Amino acid sequence: MRFNTWIAALLLALSIKTYAQTNKASSSASFNTAKPWTYWWWMGSTVTESDITWQLENFAKAGLGGVHIIPIYGVKGLEKQAIPYLSPRWMEVLAHTVREGKRLGLGVDMTTGTGWPFGGPNVSPEFAAKKWQVVNGEIQSALTKQAVKRAAPGGEGLVLDPFSAKAIPHYVQRFDSAFANFKDRPRAMYNDSYEVYGANWTDDFLNEFQQRRGYDLKSQWAAFTDTTTALVKIDYHQTLSELLLENYAKKWTDWSHKQGFITRYQAHGSPGNLLDLYEASDIPETESFGTSRLPIKGLRIDDQYEVDRFGTPNALAMKFASSAAHLASKKWVSSESTTWLANHFKVSLSQIKPQLDELFVSGINHLFYHGTTYTPQSEAFPGWLFYASTNYGVHSHFWKHYPLLNKYVERCQTILQNSQADNDLLVYFPAHDLWATKARASGGIHLLEVHHVDKWLLKLPFGKLSNWLWDNGFSFDFISDEQLQRFASLATKKYKTILVPATTYLPEATLSRLAELSKAGVKVIFMEHLPSLPTGFARQTERAASFQKLLQTWASQPSHFPSLGDLEGILATQKIRQETWAKNGLRYIRKVQNGKVVYFIANQNQLFSEGWITLATSAKRVYMYQPLTDKTMELPVRTEQGKTQVHLSLLSGESCFLKLDSNVGKVLNLSNVPSSPSQTFTLKGNGKLEFIEGKPYLPTPKTVSSLGSWTTLSDSASYFSGTARYSLTFDAPAGIEKVSKVVLDLGDVREVAEVTLNGQKIGTAWSLPFRLELPAGSLKAKQNTLEIEVTNLSANYMRLRDTQQPDWKKFQEINMVDIQYKPFNASKWQAMPSGLLSEVKIEYWEKK
């Protein structure tokens, strides 16, 4: 099957039926999960049926696949129009949303609450989050007094105790009542990232601890509070982790299933084992907050973003969610995507795509944009806005070109959702070694958040090992102690090797399970040294002796204890596949569909542009599918030393799929292998610059002899946000009609460029690198007319708007803040460069 046909078949299958869960209320709906979905904040739940329909229709036209409703704080002056959460009227507008979503092919998810985390008016002190305190020598529970953050009307109240067995059953009674006899149900319930600060206890904790750990915590309270001891601390964290999983994640998921919902769960930020918590939901969900500072040529970052304060996204943190999904054979792995990618009104499509590509290579395949704010149709620009960027709403400066991004995502996720991960390695996550260290978070517990992964992931031997594997082209998933016990597939050929990072503490059950898997044919490699002690304080001396006997199985095999410097060679002897080209900054995920290997590759560095790469999987034919253009081409293939090599051209910032085929076909002429362009022609001459659409008004047309930011042309141009057209007439270089390929290199575009050549629409360049291939015959020898319509950001207009009309900032609670969480004020900004900032070139390849 040709690759374009393959893609079309997948899209058709998804359009017919993409949702095959047990959700009775939604099983017949035609949601398209390959399309991106969006967070949809209902400010004060001040919504109407007509405006809901208007926005959903716009979302559908833009190429979205669904929405996720999150009620939050309201708009000043509209308090009387606010609809209390879960009231009969609120349920009416929810039902209307679900019905309209079905009509338009849009799915609907919702949070089990308002704002975050779980909590609200029915959370009395008995069920509220707690911490331990010592009063007169007695250990007691005390309220943290934390309230729901960004709560909507009707959702205010204390935060729920995540460790209590009674809390979730009590909390969901409110939803049972609201959804009684309710037919039009959302697809999924959602649980946001764990942000229960200071909570480290529950009323029944001492009893739970003794039953699970085999001793009274009070008898070892001095050891628990001593910063130099570890075993009791490990037991304490182990108990918290188990309570969180059993009483919070699983009980919430079980309730959701009984109500006919599936679940999306952001486990990160919690004090539990993330792998077990993610796996407890139907759709594990990670988060991409800030910018990853990827070394892509021309990629901009917001210099006001505070890395020390907020951290950066990290692919290894994302892999916790995808690993849980891979091990449990879950179809979807989702992500809260591009939160605070840059300041308000400053995010470009070219900044968004690299972050989404990073999510894709990390195993994410069901993107949720963060996000879109409900805005009435009558509300003027910039509409209602959520305090945290990025804005994907109807007033966004990239709304006109938004469908291009969405189509790219849909093409990628169509393949990624309908294929299975093809990873050889499992990396054991030693949570107990982490729990043995001093915690930095409030309450003295380890919160495994996705922001500052350096605090708990990167500095550990586990993080260093995983980072090395990632950089050196080895495909892997993470696995927990519990998952090791439960997955029988580990003894099959799916995972060939388990790597145990250098660790001190290891549960006896884990060590025994590793021995069983080793006997079953799975290679187990301990990095650097064997663990020293079993976890758990109870009967430590007795169990340590037994533990040492178990270790003797490996003690006589020193080859099992490699350092990172030795690992590449050892994995080669185990025939673990290595994609050596990953060392050049080509990030990838390898998957299998219908028995055939498929790669998604993103060039997120500047170390590679084109050349022969050696694939770790053999193939006779290789097809490259470009999701950006929806084009497919067969690539030259050769065999070197028994391995398949393919000639790949992928510039910094570009991405593609490779589909491998074992069928022998026509041999391509290797003399036609693409190489660097034969010639480069720089367009010169006097051109015309016209401002054709935008705010606050259209500046005067200009004649330009050289390119640069249009903001320097006049004061009015420095405040202009919209679209301007560059026009230039030029003669093509001699012999242009004889070339095999012609590419228009637009250079530094701020931000999107639509190109017309001699009256023919060529395409739209919206991502790095800003290049468009010109169709054969589109260039003439003389008098070519090139028109480039460039759309910039809305930031420059907001500089003026915040000086003249700052009244749009009318939201309750946090109102509007900037990327540093200071009151938002664009009037002090410098003008953002806009237009074509560098030379425009034509590159062409002469026929051989």
Automatic annotation (TrEMBL):
Q: Which Pfam families match?
A: Glyco_hydro_106, Glyco_hydro_2_N2
What Gene3D superfamilies is this protein classified in? 3.40.50.880, Galactose-binding domain-like
| Residues of the Beta-mannosidase-like galactose-binding domain | 725-812
InterPro entries xrefs: Beta-mannosidase-like_N2 (IPR054593), Class_I_gatase-like (IPR029062), Galactose-bd-like_sf (IPR008979), Ulvan_degrading_GH (IPR053161)
Q: Quick one: signal sequence residues? A: 1-20
Key words of the record? Hydrolase, Signal
Q: Give this protein's Gene Ontology molecular function annotations.
A: hydrolase activity, hydrolyzing O-glycosyl compounds
What's the name of the protein?
Beta-mannosidase-like galactose-binding domain-containing protein
Question: What species was this sequence derived from?
Answer: Runella defluvii
Q: Provide the organism lineage as a comma list.
A: Bacteria, Pseudomonadati, Bacteroidota, Cytophagia, Cytophagales
